Amino acid sequence: MPTISFRISNQEKEFIEQMAKFNGMSLSKLIRKKLLEALKEQMDMESYEKMIKLHQIKDESLSHEEMKRELGL
Fold first, then answer.
1. pLDDT class for 34, splitting at 50, 70, 90?
2. CB 26 within 8 A of CB 20
3. Where are the domains positioned within the chain?
4. What is the pTM of this model?
5. What is residue 52's predicted lDDT score, i.e. its pLDDT?
6. DSSP readout, 1-70?
7. CA separation, residue 11 to residues 15, 27, 32, 62, 65 (Å)
8. Which CA distances in Å does 8 have to 13, 16, 40, 66?
């Protein structure tokens, strides 16, 4: 398995170690889990924002009254 390293302050290291212990995880597992969760969340937000922009450009929404007319109600 590949290894990634990065620099953090002593205070950050202590905090991350405490959080890993609190969550019952190894330091590596906690960092990997939280990093991947954050990146997936970012992707979800980017997709959402893209879809909202597309919706605003081509809004095909119907009001309740318009929908009833289309359905013949």
1. very high
2. yes
3. 10-70
4. 0.63
5. 87
6. ---------HHHHHHHHHHHHHTT--HHHHHHHHHHHHHHHHHHHHHHHHHHHHHHHS-----HHHHHHH
7. 6, 15, 19, 54, 60
8. 6, 10, 23, 58
